[in-house]
Amino acid sequence: MSATDATAAPPPLRLSAAGWTLVGLLVATLLLVAASLSGVVAKGDVLDKVMVDPFRQMVEAPDLLVQTVWEGLVSGVLYALIALGFVLIFKASGVFNFAQGIMVVFAALTLVGFYEMGVPAYLALILAVGVMFLLAVAVERLVLRPLVNQPDIILFMATFGITYFLIGFGELIFGGNPKQMIAEQLYLPKGAIEFKILGGFVSLQRIDIAAAMIAALMIAALAFFFQKTRIGRALRAVADSHKAALSVGISLNQIWVIVWFTAGIVALVTGIMWGARSDVSFALSTIALKALPVLILGGFTSVPGAIIGGLIIGIGEKLGEFYWGPLVGGGIESWLAYFIALLFLLFRPQGLFGEKIIERI
Amino acid sequence: MSMRNLTIAALVAAAGVASLGTLPAAAQDQIYIPLLSYRTGPFAGSGIPIADGMGDYLRMLNERDGGIGGVKLLIEECETGYDTKKGVECYESVKGKNPVVINPYSTGITLQVIPKASVDKIPVLSMAYGLSASAVGNVFPWIFNPPVTYWDGASAFIKHVADKEGGYDKLKGKKIGLIHLDAPFGKEPIALLETLAKEYGFELKLYPVAAQDMQNQGSVWLAIRRDRTDWIYNQGWGAMNPTAVKEAVKNNFPLDKLVGVWWAGGDDDARAGGEGAKGYKSLNFHASGANFPVIQDIVKHVADKGKSTAPKEKIGENLYNRGVYNSMLIAEAIRTAQQITGKKAVNGEDVRRGFEALNITADRLKELGMEGFAAPVRLACDDHNGHNNVYVAQWDGTKWTKGSEWFAPMKDRVRPLLESAAADYAKSNTGWPKRAEACDKAS
Amino acid sequence: MFYREAGQYKTTYAADMAIFPILQDRIGLGFILFTAFVLIPLFGGDFMLSSVMIPMLVFSLAAIGLNILTGYTGLISLGTGAFMGVGAYACYKLTTIFPGVNIIVWIVASGLVSAAIGVLFGLPSLRIKGFYLAVATLAAQFFLQWCFVRIPWLYNYNASGAIEVPQRTLFGTPITGANATVETRYWVLLTLVVVLTWFASNLVHGRIGRSWMAVRDMDIAAELMGIKLLQTKLLAFAVSSFYAGVAGACMMFLWYGGGEANDAFNINQSFTILFMVIIGGLGSLIGSFFGAAFISMLPTVLKFGLPAMGIPLSGATAEHLTFLTVGTLIIVFLIAEPHGLARLWQIGKQKLRLWPFPY
Q1: Cα(C148)–Cα(C84) distance, rounded to whole angstroms?
Q2: Please, are residues B128 and B262 in contact by the beta-carbon 8 Å criterion?
């Protein structure tokens, strides 16, 4: 990481250029709003609908704006959690782990499955963590170790194999029917807090608040783990250079088990939270696709990138869908995130926080 | 050696694969009923109970009556995973075995099978799904979609709204929303709702949910809250439904104003909302619950003997009963075919005639142990749907109850739309065959 | 003993540059074509043709397309499914607007439409690389799929949003629509695949193919050597999308025969085709065929083959086991031969040269 410090700082000119663009956009928007208020841009114009009306709505119904941002924030946090699983594995083993999405489902399914077999909720939780550990060991032994030193795309492909395997295995054992997340048994709060503000009301689901808090705690714990512990240092060394890490006596295999296990725990937490929002079924794995734009936005190798990227995507897509979606018939959420990410990517091809790509002949 | 050996090996392998298609046809003293079902994939939650119900009713007939008219039924499930490609594969693999009817159980598969069925002489039963226009028997002699189409469903919803609001004139100025899966299935009711919106002066709001956002409906429901929509019709499927119910609860949307299409009426769908889901409505064309002689017979003859694929507590749930209803239609069509032709082991062509002459009266329903379970169904040569009565089921927190009496959809509105859609279909599929099959007198 | 080049002299440059310089290869190719064109339709049966061979051929075309982009030019794309969809919808629109023109012309023309869209979505490839690009191509996937649902003009305002394949004929024989026999559809498709494969083979062995490979191996170095990155990368996107588009049109018109098209071209389709390319072998045309055969046939064989062999598996359990097995096989396969089936084929050929004498 330190090796790239000298080059990592983006050229100051570019940054200020982007800054100026942003300021320009804001000024233009303000001008347009002013124009519309003064009647220069007529109500109902295309320009008005795209550039002014959404902002007018935001001003007129601030409670909805707050609610939308909150929704975006919560889903952003959950996207960030999935992205975090990707980042951990990518950093440590260079594997683009497509199976992260299915790990979310598998973890949640294991938890609920054990509970349905009559295991008490907390014991089921511990057992699910145990299963994720076994999975990490199995992946390392049976997939990563034999495939060491293969090109990235081969490892990427192998994670597809894992995905298929987990789908078949999970359904075989727990059945394909959707299950209810045992949120109450895990003492997760339910219900909502509602308060009146700004002439309307905002309702915050307790489970969402809990999700945001647990996610924050988890990220803090992970940050501590990676910054302060011996294993964390080893992991960062591995992320920097496999060979250098090996030469100072760090066991790659051990590190891989640890990161896959950590990613498994992250998956379990995500699974519980998202499962509580809808239900636990294999359809849930499509949620993981949402983490991909987060990844390219934040950079494959950056933990803060995953978090900030998640928030940008989450809030961005909810605002976009809510205020601009109706203009084209709605449902734009499915691709908006990718376009937001692409836009950022055109300025920074390695993502917001990714390590600068230096190419030499 | 080299190349030849390999090619021979390839040929042998190919021949092996080829032989799969030509499995021995079902024996003559049996009636072969393939059941396309999906117990896997993202829609498995809805697919499993339906598949259980379908299979269990037919197995019950085998156990209790020794089949239909003394002929045993050979039941075989083929797993589609709700995937069109796999579904068509299933169709191709069963069509050589003299099936009497095909249940595609997915709109996508139905659309695929429609042009093939008339060539292969196999009737297709797409019970209240598939192509709405296929209700027009003169254009689609081989396709049956009783008892209602999606357009009937949407019209029934509007009727229910008018009923609750106190008359059609009260609809004026109301905001009525359609939350739907952003796919052909979900978009199906739009055309009809638009027509009705013009007529009654309500405002139609569309809330599409992309398939990959089925479990991520936050912004959709915020939009509903913003628009202050009065009523919502939910044309959803699979994981979309429980999420919609949860979001409605979360957003304080009055649940008794959220009405699902019959496919949004799974017990699991409503249960997901917990306490708050009380009042959630769903259109239905058969009863739920196990308090019917027919369901008791299934319990006695199938489940108690350990031959059911369903866990016992799920027997009698809404979607399970839908499977039972589906199989009842098949069985009655076969029985009618036996009466018309005088044959015992009927084939696909006979069963097609059986469907067209299908007339399940209230008395017949009583004989079947289905009194109060479903409304009488009558199909005809040009009406392959029946536009049957439906009712609104309501969730009471633990089970579905009857939220309204049986009532008829707006058949007069739906039929012209169907006719024109069917004509369009025949026109855009140039070379679509004219009906050559003669009509039977209804028995 | 039989497969050796000793004694086969090349007397012209053309002979030296031939794709199949060895006589036995040419005989073998002839035999494969004979099998495909004559033997399989003769002895294969309907199920074999409609559920095994036709899907395999359609996927082969798509896999060749993606292989040109990923295997030859080194750009990973996850949007193949959507580009196939563009082809299908373009073909549908073209043939319904101009019903008089032969459908085969439109199938090829729809590839060109797809190529144009492909170039548009290929533009970011100039700045973005590797997995970043892969994810960026997902934008194309989701956006195009959204368009397929949302623009009713594309499916002629059909109430079910489905493509309805009209009957079209070639020399008086129906080749699309319900009345086209499976044999006719198979022959048309096979001819298209053979011609397009021949075209692709010439493309990748020529100057263009070499510049693609130079870009794949290191784009900066290629640029320094005078290869224009813009043109080369965009050409790869265009050709790749062309093949995907033709494959999509074939899929709808010759295989599915219409139906809910937007769902057929979803993200899973894109992934499946990527599997085929990787399992088959990156940068190998024959690998595309092997990969397509392996991935498209495996589930079918497991599902219908095992019960036929007397292993009683049915319904859901079989499906779960199929998933399990496919997943395991992919991993086992990657471990055994990361360079794909094409590499195994090469090794086999090498061994044959020496056979039966090891030295």
Answers
A1: 12
A2: yes
Question: CA separation (Å) from B188 to B154, B218, C149?
Answer: 9, 23, 12
Q: For residue A9, which phi and psi values (nearest 5 degrees)?
A: -65, 125
Structure tokens at C304: 């219908």
If pLDDT is split at 50, 70 and 90, which confidence band does B25 have? very low
Q: C213: distance to nearest CA of chain B, Å?
A: 30
Window 17-46 of B: residues touching A by CB (8 A cutoff) are 39-45
Distances (CA, A) of B403 to A237, B179, B406, C158: 65, 21, 10, 34
Is C98's Cβ below 8 Å from some Cβ in B?
no
Contact C224 A341 (CB under 8 A): no
Q: Where are the beta strands (DSSP E) in chain C?
A: 168-170, 173-176
- Whether A8 has a pLDDT exceeding 50, the answer reads no
- Which among B45, B206, B210 has the least Cβ separation from residue A281? B45
Closest listed residue to residue C131, CA positions, set C75, C185, C181:
C75
- Residue B5 confidence (pLDDT) above 70: no
Contact between B239 and B46 (Cβ < 8 Å): no
- The string of pLDDT tens digits covering residues B394-441 is 999 888 998 889 999 998 888 888 898 888 888 877 778 888 787 775
CB-based burial, B238-247: b 16+ in 10 Å, e otherwise = bbbbbbbbbb
d(CA C270, CA C359) in angstroms, rounded, equals 45
Global confidence as pTM: 0.86
Burial of A232 (0-12, 13-18, 19+ CB in 10 A): middle
Q: What residues of chain C lie within 8 A of the CB of B414, using their CB?
A: none
| 8-state DSSP, B343 | -
Which residues partner with B144 through β-bridges?
A: B125
Contact list, A318 vs chain B (CB under 8 Å) = 218-219, 222
